[in-house]
Automatic annotation (TrEMBL):
Species, as recorded: Paragonimus westermani
Sequence ranges of Polar residues compositional bias: 222-231
Residue ranges constituting the G-protein coupled receptors family 1 profile domain according to the UniProt record: 37-312
GO cellular component, one term: membrane
Predominant location category: membrane
Segments traversing the membrane: 20-46, 58-80, 100-119, 139-160, 180-201, 250-273
UniProt-annotated stretches for the region Disordered: 220-242
PROSITE patterns in the record: G_PROTEIN_RECEP_F1_2 (PS50262)
Residues in the signal sequence: none
InterPro entries to which the protein is assigned, alphabetical: GPCR-Ligand_Int, GPCR_Rhodpsn_7TM
Descriptive protein name: G-protein coupled receptors family 1 profile domain-containing protein
Keywords: Membrane, Transmembrane, Transmembrane helix
Amino acid sequence: MNESNASSHVETDTWTTLALWIYSIFPVIFLVVGIPGNLISLIIWLRRISSTPGSTSLFLSAMSVTNTYVILHGCARHWLLGLTNERIDLRVLLGCRGPVFVFTVISDLSSWLIILLCVERAICTWKPIQFKQICRLKYGGIALILVIFSLTAFNMHFFWTVETVESRCETVKRFRIFHIYWTYADFAVYSFLPLIVILVVNSSIILRLRHTQKCVKRDNSSKTTTISMPSENREPLQRTTRKTDGSARILRTVFCMATCHFALTMPVVIFFLCEDTFCVDASGQFIPQCNVLEKLTISLQIANHVTHFFIYSFTSSIFLSDLKKLIPCVAWLFRETN
């Protein structure tokens, strides 16, 4: 019996050590890679806001800001937990309610920014000629403000449903039942609802692009029609084709962002929805293996906010061109400061 208890204790210590190691190493990597990448992305997209049609650059600038905050907040907290054996929580030091509220709103906003990007791409694809009139920068700013206001109102309850209990942020007792139901609503807003909307919108974009490509091929194959078509009738078709091609290129970037977002954030959603079922043993104790799994899924969630710089670099020729122009400026500034 004693040997069994000793073996169990050693195994628990091993899993606990592994969990702390994850929080001691990964946050440093994410900070070193993610912060510079997102700051560079922010500079590039901010420069593009006034010179590009629509609100894509505005949304991507906002995405860079949300990414930077999530990485700073999440990695600083996790790194401190890893270094102090989970004795010091940054959220507790800052009062629990404010940090939990802001982090949740910003995380939700990162999902809904992808929705805004997809909706704008859909408008550009379905209404290419009217795109500049429909998707003005002013309207994009209004849409962004409405989304932020809605997410703020949705998460306002944290200011009275969360409290500090023994150096931890816990749900206030009288709101325990509310918290159980709200967890599903939160994950719906953060993951499930955006996933459905993005799938529907992107499917409509793909169908429209295929239809446009078929029309272009049919028009190109009909030489007689092309020759006899007046120039004033061909011009709208050519503008539509150019707009559609541009939308397809930007859609590639947005599609990669959406894919990475759900591939890297869905594990943490599934984990927290299922942890009470699979991670608590008969005695009511938390299974140590689940502690490691929790750290891994949360690290994947943070990693999602590190990937966007690399997605832009590999899928956006505009971003890559601006990045190449920016690198000599950064090198010159570095030489001047030294």
